[in-house]
């Protein structure tokens, strides 16, 4: 029977010993297990250094021909302990390249360039990065170590106070000026802002919530001042009448400011003459109320 037609069982991975590795094999002919020395002899190739090795089977006696099976020879470094010169820093706008300080396996220190090679990483932004150590020559597989750049706390960021603004009738969202090491933080990338109580006159709030390379929150208050009504256009129902002994109270038809019609009682009050009878000129006084001030 030609032994090439028979199956050779998988050979388990073999540890590196520094000597030729010669694992036994199992060859089956149906249910019969061939006997080494009677049914076949063996040879090996590339079985001293780590890597792929080959076991050769040569038929004898009742068998002829040859067959082969690959197997792995080497020491895995999956469980090696990889130590970096620094495993954690805080974001500082600089690039960081962690250095592998040592690699130990079973208490044995391995040598870079002889036992392993390093696939390093250079990083600037906050996050977790992986340094990979790959076995070479007599070692195989990989081991890793994590390098972390932690986000910078908002307490170390320079944030300008928000200046007073004037009521507009709409939400007011003043821009945030925040810098770290002289460079401006970017809204949407480094932080988000949530505004509240930012329509009516009074004290409004802006809550800065950092993200990305920064962490933490900060609350800024700002003042919304009342809008001065002095530039408003006041329209009366009538501006002149002829003396007729009847007491008259001039009616305000509309008060507009910046194209917006103000509401009596909410935005302004009316004072001045009322029930006037005699000929003459009289003033109607509009006084700001609510979100408005002045006359």
Task: Please provide a written account of the structure.
By secondary structure, the chain is mainly β. The protein contains no helices and 31 strands. Strands 9-15-13-12 form a four-stranded mixed β-sheet, with no helix packed on it. The protein has a four-stranded mixed β-sheet with strand order 18-24-22-21, with no helix packed on it. A three-stranded antiparallel β-sheet has the order 1-2-3, with no helix packed on it. A hairpin with a 2-residue loop joins strand 2 and strand 3. It starts with 6 loop residues before the first strand and ends with a strand. The model has no long low-confidence stretch (mean pLDDT 92).
What is the helical fraction, as a range of percent? Answer: under 10%
| End-to-end separation | 116 Å
Q: Give the mean pLDDT.
A: 92
Placed side by side, the strands forming the largest sheet appear as: 9-15-13-12
Q: What topology emerges from the helices and strands here?
A:
Layout: E1 7-8, E2 27-29, E3 32-33, E4 40-45, E5 51-59, E6 66-73, E7 75-76, E8 81-84, E9 88-90, E10 100-105, E11 108-109, E12 116-119, E13 127-135, E14 139-140, E15 142-150, E16 152-153, E17 158-159, E18 165-166, E19 178-180, E20 183-184, E21 191-196, E22 202-210, E23 214-215, E24 217-225, E25 227-228, E26 233-236, E27 252-257, E28 260-261, E29 268-272, E30 284-288, E31 292-293
Give a short overview.
The chain is mainly beta and 295 residues long. 0% of the residues lie in helices and 45% in strands.
């Amino acid at each position: 029977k030609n032994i090439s037609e028979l199956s050779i069982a998988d050979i388990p991975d073999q540890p590196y010993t520094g000597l030729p590795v010669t694992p036994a094999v199992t060859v089956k002919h149906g249910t019969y297990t061939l006997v080494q020395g009677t049914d076949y002899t063996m040879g090996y190739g590339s079985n001293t250094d780590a890597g792929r090795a080959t076991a050769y089977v040569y038929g004898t006696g009742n068998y002829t021909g040859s067959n082969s099976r690959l197997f792995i020879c080497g020491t895995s470094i999956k469980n090696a302990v990889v130590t970096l010169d620094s495993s954690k820093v805080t974001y500082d706008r600089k690039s960081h390249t962690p250095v592998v300080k040592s690699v130990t396996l079973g208490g044995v220190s391995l040598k870079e360039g002889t036992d392993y090679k390093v696939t390093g990483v250079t990083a600037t932004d906050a996050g977790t990065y992986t340094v990979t150590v790959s076995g070479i020559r007599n070692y195989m597989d990989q081991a890793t170590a994590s390098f972390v750049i932690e986000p910078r706390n908002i307490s170390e960021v320079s944030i300008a106070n928000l200046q007073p603004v004037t009521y507009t009738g709409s939400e007011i969202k003043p821009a945030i000026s925040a810098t770290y090491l002289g460079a401006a933080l970017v809204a949407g990338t480094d932080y988000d802002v949530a505004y509240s109580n930012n329509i009516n006159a009074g004290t409004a709030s802006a809550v800065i919530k950092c993200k990305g390379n920064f962490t933490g929150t900060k609350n800024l208050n700002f003042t919304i001042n009342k809008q001065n009504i002095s530039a408003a256009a006041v329209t009366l129902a009538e501006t002149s009448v002829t003396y007729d002994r009847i007491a008259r109270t001039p009616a305000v038809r509309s008060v507009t400011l910046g194209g917006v019609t103000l509401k009596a009682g909410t935005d302004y009050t009316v004072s001045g003459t009322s029930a006037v009878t005699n000929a003459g000129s009289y003033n109607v006084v509009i006084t700001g109320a609510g979100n408005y001030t002045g006359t």
